[in-house]
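Session log. Operator J.P. requested a structure for one protein chain; no other inputs attached. Running the standard single-chain path with token output.
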Amino acid sequence: MNADSGAVVLNGGQRLALKYFSVAITLFAAQVIFGLLAASQYLVPDLLYNLLDFNVNRMVHINALVVWMLYGFIGSAYWLLEDESGHEIVGLPLANFVFWLLTAAVGIVVVVYLLVQSGPGDDFTLWFINEGREYIEAPRWADIGITFCMLVFFYNVAATFMRGRWSGIGGVLVLDLVALAGLYLAGMFYTTNISMDQFWWWWVIHLWVEATWEVLVGCIMAWALMQVLGVRRRIVQTWLYIEVAMMFGSGILGLGHHYFWIGTPEYWFSIGGFFSALEPVPLVAMVVHSVYDAGAHKMRNANHPAMAWIIAHTFGNFFGAGVWGFMHTLPQINLYTHGTQWSASHGHFAFFGAYATIIIAMIYIALQRQRGNIWMGADMPDGGWKWKWALGLLNLGVVGMTIALMISGFEQAFIERAVEGSTWAGYFTAQNHPWFQQGMIWRFIFGVVTACGLTLLVWDLLTIGRRETRRALQPVAGVVVVLLLLLAAGSLPAYAGDTAAGRSKAEACAGCHGDDGISVSDPLVPVLAGQSADYLAVQLMAFRQGVRQNEVMNAMAEELSDSDIQDLAAFFAALPAGAEAASAPPPMVARGKAKYAACAGCHGLKAEGDGMRPRLAGQSAAYTLKQMRDYASGARRDPVMEGIAAAFHDDDFNHLAEYIASLTRQQ
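Structure written below.
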């Protein structure tokens, strides 16, 4: 998937992420294929008998699910890592080696599952064929390999943030990766006591998959919302912290709804049933708050597929993991439903709604950038029919399977558990009941619908943006730039402006900004002379749309036409920047210069700016200080700047402002 000549250059982490995403989608397809085979064997029990039995199909189906989502999460973390930390990935060659190592190991395990399938049940079987424990059947050598890969992943992420800048998202991500590597070890205990074995088994199934993954999703979601909607960092990080608190406060206690069945005290039943369903709440609140905030500030997004999948994640996580989990784990219900198709109903809805959806959203975000920040909003060349149908069919298929399995599970709970008292006779009576069998038929039908949706999704991922020539850049200066949307529509071609016309129109600006674009009366008024025309046009458009707030500028910009904005931008950009520099105490300037290293990547070594990144050199210290404080408080919006501001103290702002003011404007 090579981008066209207008494509941006991806960093090392993003190139690695695309590899993980490619394998993730391949394993997603494998999950669906083997799921359909297992569903078919429910209807035709003799299908592939003694060749590829039901338990093998089911095992590959579930393991492919877990592994493809793990690949998706790792890819998502690598994709955002360099942008969030402001530093190239530490140990990138090792990270690439681990990708190939992990992929080779997954391939070997799948081949052994399909061709060898089982062993004599001795230590050799445990180490090299199949551990025999549901959902974590991988042999012991693969367990050790997975732990090693997770430790390298942790090293890459933690070391990169330590070398770069920390943020709330970065801190939570690093701490969560400690648990991601550590909790998997709980599944490597071997004991002949079934209750103790199940105790530690649930630590992997519930805490490794549900708790650590849930926090990982929170980090990915927070970053994605800032990219897609330009949401304030303060909002998403607040809800992310609440999610971490809920994980510690409810995720661990939520294990209790499993403990009752292995002989622990009865009170765990009620504790676990209540707390298990609370984890998705902060993530749902994060999305709802972000969408509200984006609407209130007139944000727009240029990646409709990613936004649609984020919305699907919100509903899927709330209903699949939350509502379905809560009604299934309530003690009075779980007494009858535990281990029935009701469990499978919850599992299908929760895994797809909570995890698959956000990974697909991240893949669309990655593809947009990989193909040159192409337009993925309204009026796409093909109308976006493939991603829309893929979204609809995948969600319809999963919801349909969920309901079909729930009906079969309800029948099992009533006949097998309530009427027959959980006897073997009751089990077979329930299996042969028309309600159960009809549920299995509808599960297969909706599985086919899901497969059709996945086929369209893969087709769309391979082709989206191929014929698109419009660009939709990432949020800059606090907005998903409205000006760039107009550029894409052709209404503002290339910021072409008339400097002579701009001179006469700028007379209304002279009272604050000066005749030559350099304010001398108010240090809080920025220098416009010599600033990039692109940047000036974007800011004027943001003021006109009300996305950037300033009472005077909002009123002034409201009256400007598109051509007025182009002319004014061209005029101020053509003015000489001037050579004056403010004086400041040398110690403050020296400290500010040291801190400026975090800014140089975007604004230039001498704060000269670059296109969409503004020239800072020569701005008054008071103006620069106010802007940095506004970014820190969320009064001014930009995901990158908010992250940088969060890493500094107010003293740092003062030092930076004085250093920037000391630079001459013509550097």
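Operator note: The mean pLDDT is 83.
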